[in-house]
Amino acid sequence: MTHSLHRIGSEDTFQDDYVLISRPAMGINHVGCAPRVKRTLEIIFEEGPTNLGSLTTQENLTMGLDPQELIAKTEDNSPVMCCFHEREKVVKVLKRLKEEEIGLSVIVSGPIDNVQSICKEVGLKPHSANLSLGFHGSAR
Amino acid sequence: MKIRQELCVGCGQCLPYCPMGAIERGKDTSRINWDECVECGICIRQSKCPVKAIYEPPETMEWPRSVRKVFSDPTSKHENTGVRGRGTEEVKTNDVTARFKRGFFGIALEFGRPGVGTRLGDVEVITKALAEEGIQFEAANPLTFLMEDARTGIIKEDVRNEKVLSAIVEFVIPQENLEEICTKIFETASKAKCIFSWALISRFEPDGTLPVVERLEKIGIKPSKNMKINVGLGRPLKEE
Q1: What's this model's pTM, rounded to 2 decimal places?
Q2: B221 touching A, CB under 8 A?
Q3: Given CB atoms, is A25 within the 8 Å cutoff of chain B?
Q4: Which of B94, B192, B212 sits opposite A136 (nearest CB)?
Q5: Average pLDDT of B97-124?
Q6: Residues 6+ away with beta carbon under 8 Å from B50
Q7: What confidence score (pLDDT) does residue A139 get?
Q8: pLDDT for B84
């Protein structure tokens, strides 16, 4: 299911399934942030995401997205959206973003216990959480 | 979106890419059901039509049809609503924006996902009920822009029948109103003509806990273990 929050299936099926999104806050810290977005992309590509999608090139890695082409086209308002299936890769990405003081907002979607454990290992204090409360209504 | 009938070879390669199932295969060619198409553009971007028969006609961007693309295609521009995207940056940049402060919760109801889409008028079942409770809808959300009057939750007549991939209702409540508002949503949900997902945004307490989970469980709502966490890397960090 193509959603970073609402997931269908048992918890076992997304134990090692992490979505990572990074972006500036429009109107607050987005002006001139393209170099920081590019650096974020470089770090992510170096660690090896399972997939990464781009609104800029309208491609993703599985479709043959060229990382260097994407980095070259990155602008101040380009969001970074990718996923990982290895906890350790998420840890490494967050550590590097923290050490280099990139300063863009980062969200990690995944099992709450796992994400909190990752944050603890990296030395991060989680700020806010978006909780899925399920589905309602008619699908007809 | 439309398919040029003089070019289409009827191969059907585009059919599985339409999230609305709006591409219909005829004897020799395929056609897009104009009323069911939400103008998401996935057929053009992803299906790689071998004869390039799929195209976006000029009327796609004529009001009120133009709202379909705005709400359904994440690559589109948003001149008609005056707001970028289907919703706000919500939790994604909350460490910098402080959109959701301590003492408050954010709530988002996303109509039409997963996989069915929604007519914009169908969200009224919920928005009118919430408006009666005094909810103030997020001003920076494009759906609020399409309300006749945000104090009533009524959607403008000329866009009511427009079908979109999804539409998000966003608002903030004081934390003491949690049980009352969630119960109202729960009660009203059975009347909804369309599927919707809902989500709640909360700050972590200074000790790293999320007390809202226990409060939700007490009224019969069990949040998923899968959560979207803002890890607090944004700068300048807004603490309030």
Answers
A1: 0.92
A2: yes
A3: yes
A4: B192
A5: 93
A6: B9, B11, B13
A7: 64
A8: 53
A116 located within any domain: yes
**A102 to B231: CB separation less than 8 angstroms, yes or no:** no
Q: How far apart are CA B167 and CA B163, in angstroms?
A: 10
Cα B122 to chain center, whole Å?
12
Residues 6+ apart with CB under 8 A from A135: A6, B114, B195, B196, B197, B198
The string of pLDDT tens digits covering residues B127-150 is 999 999 999 999 988 899 999 999
Task: Look at the domain B2-56 and name its fold.
Answer: Alpha-Beta Plaits (3.30.70)
Mutate to test the interface with B, among A21, A54, A127 (most CBs of B within 10 A): A127
Q: Residue A140 has what pLDDT?
A: 63
Q: Can you tell me the distance from the alpha carbon of A20 to that of A25, in angstroms, rounded to the nearest whole number?
A: 16
Size of interface A-B (CB pairs under 8 A): 206
Are B230 and A129 inside 8 Å of each other by CB?
yes
Of the options 2.40.50.430, 3.30.830.10, 3.20.20.70, 3.30.70.260, the CATH number for the domain spanning B90-218: 3.30.70.260
Mean pLDDT for the stretch of residues B68-95: 77
**pLDDT bucket at B81, cuts 50 / 70 / 90:** very low
Locate the domains of chain B by residue range.
2-56, 90-218
